[in-house]
Amino acid sequence: MCHTLAQAGYIFAENQRICVSVILTSRKTKCDVYKKNTKQKRELFNLREETSNYTASYDDFPMGHGEKSVILALAGGLEMYDSEMVAIRWHMGAWRLNQDDNEEKQCYKAASQKFPLVTIIQTADTLAARIIE
């Protein structure tokens, strides 16, 4: 375990710019997906209270946010290494993997084996979503 953590720390230190650009690019694409809604909620004694929530809309650019992140980053002029593009594409890892699609499973496995950054970004994303936030 300690060896794995040390190795992950080394990879992050060596690729800090890459990790930061991958994370920021991935987050940027979600900005236009979530829309704030306000609605009336019925409370005790039939009083109404205004509440806010967010809903996701993929109407503007209907593509998965990993692929969308890569496309928008490249279109915006950001030069990216293959490892960055693949890490962004697969940052959700097995959580979003279509188990019925053999090609997708093989691509994910190959990406994880070829680019350690895939696992690093996936782990960071999971930590942020499930533990830190």
Tally the structural domains: 1
Name the average pLDDT. Answer: 76
Number of strands: 2
Spans with pLDDT under 50 lasting ≥5 residues?
A: 1-7
How would a crystallographer describe the biggest sheet? Answer: 2 strands, antiparallel
Look at the helices and sheets and give the structural class: alpha+beta
Strands of the largest sheet, in order across it?
A: 1-2
Q: Percent helix among the residues?
A: 55-70%
> What is the terminal separation in angstroms?
25 Å
How many helical stretches? 6
- Rounded to an integer in angstroms, the radius of gyration calculated over CA atoms is 19 Å
Q: Approximately what portion of the residues adopt beta-strand conformation?
A: 5-15%
N-to-C series of helices and strands:
HHEEHHHH
Overall 3D geometry?
Answer: elongated
